[in-house]
Structures are given as C-alpha cells and as structure tokens.
Amino acid sequence: MSPLHLLRIPVRVPQLLRFAAEHGITSPDETLGYTLHAWFTALFGDAAPKPFRCLERRQEVLAYASTDATTLLQHAQTFASPLAWAALDAQGVASKPMPHAWRPGQRVRVEVLTCPVARHGDEEKDIYLRALDRMGDAAPTRGEVYSAWFVRQWAGAAQLEDVELLGMQAQSPLLRRDRSLGQNRLKRVQRPQALFAANATVEDGERFAALLARGIGRHRAFGFGMVLLAPPR
What we know:
The protein is an alpha+beta fold. It folds into 2 domains: 93 residues; 125 residues, Alpha-Beta Plaits (2-Layer Sandwich). It has a 4-stranded antiparallel β-sheet with strand order 2-3-1-4, with no helix packed on it. The protein has a 4-stranded antiparallel β-sheet with strand order 8-9-5-10. A two-stranded antiparallel sheet has the order 6-7. Helix 1 packs across helix 2. It is globular, with a radius of gyration of 18 Å.
C-alpha cells in the first residue's frame, strides 16, 4: 500500500467560484463537493486527493492522498490553469505522513461525514428508504438505521464504541454529472447525509489503514467519507 498523507488545502473561495463558473458549474453547489472535485482534478490530475472533507468556516479542505504536498504543488504549478491555481492558497498547503502501521488494540476517536446510500443495479437509494421497503412500519428509526450501517462499515477493521450521530439530513442537494441518453450536463440530486463520531479500537491494522485511505460509504470523491482522527475520549 502506498504511504498515506494528510493534506491541508486552503481555498480562496471567490476565486474558486470564478473557476466553477468558467467550467460550467453554474447551478448552486451547497456542499461544494462537485466544485472541489472538479478543482482538485484541474490542479492535481490523477493524483487528486480523496476522500476529503470541506471545512467551510475555515475555508480549507482536509484530505488523504498517496502524494505529499510538495509533489502535488509541483504538479499544479506545472500543469494547472491560471484560474485553478488562483483559487489555491499555495503557501498554506501542508501535509504530513500518516502512520505506516496501526497496532491492534490501539484506540482513536473518529469523525466521519457520510452519505448513507446503497446502490442496487443502476439505482442508488437512501438506506433508510430501503429499510422501509423491506420492513415497512417495523423498520427502526432513520437514526438507528444510519448508525447500524455506520458500524458495519468498520467490520474487521475496528470495533466502535460510544457511537454518536451528531447530525443528519434526509435530503441534501448535490450536483452530479448526468451522462444518460447521450447527455453530459450537471443535474441536482437529493441524497442523505449523516455526521458520526465514535471511539474506535483497531482490530486489524492493515484493514484500518485501508479504510482510512478508501473512506466510508459512497461519494468519497465529493466530500463524504473521510475519517478524521483524534485522541479517544
């Protein structure tokens, strides 16, 4: 497995919105997920970091990548467009290598913004709505369904304790590319989101490291699924 780096990427928001408009992203993008996805691709190409978490109040993004900040900046300075480069506070970009090994029994606190959906065939659907389809009135509450789903994502990698659902939205508007019927335009879709925190005890170090690099759930290239770490409580 490639070394994992934690990146801090400060964003110049007015310039980012100008970049978005010039690239045809004119529909409202409340989460900035699609805009940041397009911007990272314009800056870093195939090395674009994911998963990532947008911290709007701090006007920065935290992300995991297999490449360090110096290498990413060199790529962006060489190949990115002036509009993409202008939205980046290059002097504030920083990275650190994450641990190469995680010890079974090691305890950490995790926080993850997730998009709790599942895909069956060509259809992607809120996992709570799928529970209603299966169980009707006997289905658990939305929060219980989301929490159980979140715990399952860690199977074999870590044991979770004190799981907290810090917030959720049944419908959050997201921008996605619509390539159906030969089209290639943006569309707005409604998807749920849920913010979780928990104490985690590592069970399998390699699986835990792989989960950090991959992220939790779907839409990981659009601002969901990044595992933020802190000391356990």
